[in-house]
Input
Amino acid sequence: MRPPLVLTVAGSDSGGGAGIQADLKTMLALGTHGMSVLTAVTAQNSLGVQGAWELPVDAVRAQYRSVVDDIGVQAVKTGMLSSAELVETVAELIGGTDAPAVVDPVGVSKHGDALLAASALDSVRTKLLPVATVATPNLDEVAQLTGVHVESDTDLRRAAAAVLEYGPRWALIKGGHLHGDAVDLLTDGSQEHWLRAPRLDNRHTHGTGCTLASAVACGLAKGQPVPEAVKAAKAYVTGAIEAGFALGGGIGPVDHGWALGRDASSV
Ligand SMILES: Nc1ncnc2c1ncn2[C@@H]1O[C@H](COP(=O)(O)OP(=O)(O)OP(=O)(O)O)[C@@H](O)[C@H]1O
Ligand SMILES: Cc1ncc(CO)c(N)n1
Output
């Protein structure tokens, strides 16, 4: 039987923990067919981002059309978009596609390296967020986009309201950078869903945000309602963080294959 079709529009992480690589691994682990539109290439590892190169707008547009016009998509996820021009191109493409879109408004890497130009923030607010089914900012991205600084769980409500002002159907505010339990808030302005997981004492968390957003897109491609897709995605990312492993000299990746069998010799 054909698996659900999910498309990621994001940058490459050469280290394999975040970006397109995290997205495609998540899509495989969750039983979907993953496809990709590459927006940028980064030279990246467990220590940080050593370089980044954008693809031309025409190359992004052509990849998207190749996938959507022939194969089709049941959900789209966006990640690193790098520039205002790429943000606007991708927003226009998604706006013209009849599939739910999970927008992860990636701003900086875990090491603080910029993955989005400051000049692109306004395009994210006014062009990309309005076409999102679910927007999944972390706390730094919320602060950059809305000016709301979250210091406690209760501030998550204010942050979500500020994000919803820009027009996404749902906001999923990730409280992963707070202390205490890892609490996220999902809301569409009327329903509220609090997603709580114990804070795992594992520094190998490279790629958590990409993984969560991709897992949400997988659930949506399977036809799940947003709250159900987000709950399943939270369980998947929590398991992946728990199994995160050391790699290189810095922050290792989450383990996307944690829920799969590992005995390659039996294949
Ligand atoms: N130490 C942790 N233990 C448990 N859950 C965590 C931990 N750190 C993050 N999470 C969860 O992981 C998910 C991703 O959140 P996070 O805030 O890390 O995203 P992010 O900053 O966008 O990630 P990145 O930019 O590294 O890809 C959220 O559900 C968050 O609550
Ligand atoms: C390419 C890429 N996309 C997203 C992230 C998010 O952290 C990253 N580190 N690298």
Residues 18, 110, 138, 174-177, 182, 184, 197, 199-200, 205, 207-210, 212, 234, 237-238, 241 surround adenosine-5'-triphosphate (ligand 1) (CB under 6 Å).
